[in-house]
What we know:
Layout lengths: L1 E5 L5 H8 L4 E5 L3 H8 L10 H8 L3 E4 L7 E4 L5 E2 L4 E2 L2 H13 L5 E4 L7 H11 L9 E4 L9 H7 L2 E5 L2 H11 L7 E5 H32 L3 H8 L22 H6 L7 H10 L1 H13 L6 E5 L14 H11 L3 E5 L13 H5 L4 E4 L5 H4 L2 H7 L4 E4 L6 H6 L3 E4 L6
Parallel strand pairs: 1-2, 1-4, 2-3, 4-7, 7-8, 9-10, 11-12, 11-13, 13-14, 14-15
Antiparallel strand pairs: 5-6, 8-9
Helix pairs in contact: 4-5, 8-11, 12-13
Amino acid sequence: MKICVMGLGYIGFPTALLLAQKNYVVGVDINEKKVKTINKGNIPIREAGIPELYEKVRENFIAKNDVEEADVFIIAVPTPLDDYNRIADLTYIKKATDMISKVLEKDNLVVLESTVPPTTSERIIIPRIEKSGIKIGEFLYAYCPERALPGKILYELVNNDRIIGGIDRKSAEKAKRIYSTFVKGKIFLTDVKTAEFVKLIENVYRDVNIAFANELAKIAEEYEINIWEAIELANKHPRVNILKPGPGVGGHCIPIDPWFLTERALNYKLITTSRDVNESMSNYVIKMIRELVKDIKNPVITIWGVTYKGNVSDTRRTPALKIIKLCEREGYEVRCFDPYAEEFEYELLSLENSVKNSDCIVIVADHKEFREIEPDEIARLMRNKNLVDTRNVVEHRKWRKKGFKVRILGVRRM
Ligand code: SAJ
């Protein structure tokens, strides 16, 4: 089977390689530099197992800037949020659809993987493809969302169960045959609109439950309870799984997908209120910092971890950015250190330079490396020894023994 995968991002590229194990795959991306880099064997994605898989399948895979005839087309391009209007930006999907329409033939299968508001396939994508003169039914269409966790993408693309929504039974079955060439998890079939809806509610479930944990953290501080201990104990209940509080919700999915779900809905309240709770966490973190440095002239604040979550290099929609900008609004000087981030709006310093003469370290992303840092070497370099831990990452007793004032999100006591 010849397959064109449109979009060689953190999902499209691994998916193309997995398909290339049993098919001939043309990976299509409008970014010429990315195409050249990939064909030279330089892998643009830092995910375990990708370089090895590329070496294994490179005979069956090539990256190109333009689409060509194929049996199957898979669209895995980004769907950003139009922040001002809070609606999905379908520009990239429409561009990919128009490229496919130029070469589409009867009996081809078109698969959409990108996250979209429910009914987008039937209202927008399929009619756009039909402008090619080939009507739905003459070509097949399915919606196959991914659910791979950044940091474990290859493993999860293979082992997670998968939902496939077909515009008709024939489309669903053909898409299932294609994905069965690499998916070891179970594959469940449904219709297109339900599959679009399922993808969104998986992520909105997470946003709402993170908001619940964040609200509990604030309430626990009022009662002077340690929220981390309380959640751990509550989760001993066989049917309770409260998530973790944090400085906010980042990444290019969880903070966005709620708006895709509500875009054409009328009856919602909890979903957008949860968004407000999660967005309010950066303000809460600023209050924690302000309390610690209020008697210091021209405080220097050190941000450890600028990625959107621990142990990944992605900084898209990271809560760290808003915290940094709010620190600057307070008149603080800000310095950043992150062992994973490759590019960021602010200069990324070495660990040592990030804390030299600093007055307060703020842990924002929960990188595992922060747990190993010895406080005594840090204490010697700092001007004032304050630590705000928004992720309950470090061993606080060790830091307090070295003279640090430690403020943990969800724990009132210093
Ligand atoms: N976060 C918390 N507390 C938690 C869990 C997460 O504050 O208990 C924060 C993280 O720090 C991060 C944000 O939420 O800033 C999102 O992180 P995440 O791990 O919840 O989600 P992603 O964006 O890395 O991946 C999610 C996953 N969806 C679900 O777990 C339901 C993944 O399976 C999806 O494939 C991915 O979104 C996507 O691309 O849709």
